[in-house]
Design a protein that fits this description.
Layout lengths: L1 H21 L3 E5 L1 E3 L3 E3 L2 H10 L2 E5 L5 H9 L3 E4 L7 H5 L12 H16 L4 E4 L1 H9 L4 E2 L2 H4 L18 E5 L4 H6 L3 E4 L6 E2 L6 E7 L4 E6 L5 E4 L3 H5 L7 H17 L2
Parallel strand pairs: 1-4, 1-5, 5-6, 6-13
Antiparallel strand pairs: 2-3, 7-10, 8-9, 8-11, 11-12, 12-13
Helix pairs in contact: 2-10, 5-6
The protein binds manganese (II) ion.
């Protein structure tokens, strides 16, 4: 009788563990201020997280470390979204060039602090466009503030006028990199909506994809499977049911599940 009870108990514990394992992970999505009156994150990120099997939550800008810390308690992974330019003077010590665009100082501070705190805690993190550039800047890298005026010889158009689910320029991807494993190819056409780009890569990070003019299109943290960034917008494809880049989000969800299982 005692033995039967033990077996039942073991089965119950195993079932509970499975249920925990199967839980959808919560993915925090960074946001901006819409006209100063709303919290704004494009629906395409939300849809992509849902399609990949995660629970999306939008993270509003705050500068209170305790609130940020509690935000991070509640998530299993993070997507740093696209958006405005990054203040070059404050974050990588360069005077602004005439081609620099709009900056939102409050968002820069929040995003960079959040990235550093999240990675310190081993939370999986995907940076997209601005988010990818911030990942580089947060750990000591720099950016081109404006490709057309700063990158001599760049003859690829990085500001496409085509739908977001349509790739217009090629990237070459390093074999064996996270991006290569996520989408299963070494060359692919991506969408492109940026005029800034990673210049000097941060220590501890490496470039894993470039466009034909040499612009950095993907980075990852060396020795990690859970911190990576892309210059293009995979959510533009994924949210519109084009599955070329779905693997990027699925990889984040997988890492987020693993992280969740380590959180007690
Ligand atoms: Mn591009």
């Amino acid at each position: 009788m005692k033995r039967v009870l033990t077996i039942v108990l073991v089965l119950l514990v195993a079932a509970a563990a499975c249920a925990q394992q199967g839980k959808k992970p919560v993915i925090g999505i960074s946001s901006t201020w819409g006209e100063g009156t709303s919290v704004s994150a494009p629906l395409t990120y939300v849809k992509s997280v849902l399609r990949a099997g995660g629970v999306p939550v939008v993270l509003p800008i705050t500068h209170d470390p305790e609130i940020m810390s509690r935000m991070l308690d509640g998530v299993d992974g993070i997507i740093m979204t696209g958006g405005e330019d990054i203040d070059p003077l404050k974050w990588f010590g360069e005077e602004p060039v005439p081609g620099m665009g709009q900056i939102v100082p409050e968002r820069d501070s929040f995003d960079i602090a959040l990235i550093r705190m999240a990675i310190e805690r081993n939370i999986p993190l995907l940076g997209i466009c601005r988010g990818h550039q911030l990942l580089n800047v947060a750990f000591g890298g720099s950016l081109y503030q404006d490709i057309p005026s700063q990158v001599r010889g760049s003859n690829v158009k990085h500001s496409q006028r085509a739908p977001t689910y349509y790739g217009t320029h090629t990237i070459d991807i390093e074999k064996g990199s996270l991006l290569n494993k996520q989408i299963g190819v070494e060359s692919v056409a991506v969408n492109s909506y940026h005029h800034q780009a990673v210049k000097d890569i941060a220590p501890g990070y490496k470039v894993t994809a470039r466009s034909k003019d040499g612009i950095v299109e993907a980075i990852e943290k060396i020795g990690s499977t859970k911190v990576f960034g892309v210059q293009f917008h995979p959510e533009g494809f994924t949210a519109n049911n084009v599955d070329t880049f779905l693997g990027i989000f699925q990889h984040l969800i997988k890492e987020a599940k693993n992280y969740s299982a380590t959180k007690k």
